[in-house]
């Protein structure tokens, strides 16, 4: 899309970005409801395993650090695309996607170890709310990784110049939102037990 | 494009700011995990952790999502549903007795 072909609303704002912020607003309500449900049922499981018996804080701290650093890589990717620096744009987009995949790897490790220790989505209220909340977040991370890999492919095709920076910016908004949701989940689910 | 607000160009912070924010986020995360393991913080663990989490949340939203520098309409579109979600969470916790106020 050339600047002349870009679409703006009557407010003068890019309609793609405006729509994406509206989508993120709706996502606030989705995750708000899931986190509320987790909090409402917290401590009401009649059988174990309970959070303090099973949650692995050191491992989750590392995955939290990983996701925070992916947000840094994402803003650096946007800056590189905006200034037309293809090499660094590809490097930072690839780094962000890689860190997202590492986070998903941590989540896979956590989920499988919980199942081995006897906690599934059917075990108790903690299992149901925990897997629903963190699983939904993980699905969002997976979608984000797909978006990032799509941008990376477009870059290698030579179709991700500064005029397309808005596509990187809205993907970045999504990625950072996924990050801030995890900031809340890490505190509410893992640290405040 | 520069005639229009809300683009991917223009008033975004520089690399130095992004790196500084990342360092602050990292330090806060280390403090959060540290506080979790210190028994003396147990009575005030929840408010301390929620405050630190709120600071991290705000930093990412303001600087990495550029809400501090972007058009006020974007801020409103994000903040109103966020406050609504927060209100629903608090209301549900009251309803289900999470604060121990309904016997």
Textual characterization of the structure:
With 193 residues, chain A is mainly α. Chain A has a single domain (14-42, 55-191), classed as Cytochrome c oxidase, subunit III, four-helix bundle (Four Helix Bundle (Hemerythrin (Met), subunit A), Up-down Bundle). Chain A has helices at 15-40, 51-54, 57-82, 86-116, 125-156, 165-191. Residues 1-5 of chain A have low confidence and may be disordered. Chain B has 103 residues and is mainly alpha-helical. Chain B has helices at 15-37, 45-64, 72-95. Chain B is flat, with a radius of gyration of 18 Å. Chain B starts with 14 loop residues before the first helix and ends in an 8-residue tail after the last helix. The chains are: A mainly alpha (193), B mainly alpha (103). Chains A and B meet through helix 1, helix 3 and helix 6 of A and helix 1, helix 2 and helix 3 of B.
Helix content of chain A: over 70%
Rg of chain B, please?
18 Å
Strand coverage percent of chain B: under 5%
Helix content of chain B: 55-70%
Uncertain regions of chain A: pLDDT < 50 for 5+ in a row?
1-5
Write the H/E string of chain A, N to C: HHHHHH
- Percent strand of chain A equals under 5%
What is the makeup of the main sheet of chain B?
none
Largest sheet of chain A: none
In short:
The complex is a heterodimer of chains A (193) and B (103). Chain A has 193 residues and is mainly alpha-helical. Chain A has helices spanning 15-40, 51-54, 57-82, 86-116, 125-156, 165-191.
Relevant terms:
heterodimer, A: 193 residues, mainly alpha, Four Helix Bundle (Hemerythrin (Met), subunit A), 6 helices, 76% helix, disordered N terminus, B: 103 residues
Topology:
The complex is a heterodimer of chains A (193) and B (103).
Chain A: H1 15-40, H2 51-54, H3 57-82, H4 86-116, H5 125-156, H6 165-191
Helix pairs in contact in A: 1-5, 1-6, 3-4, 3-6, 4-5, 5-6
Chain B: H1 15-37, H2 45-64, H3 72-95
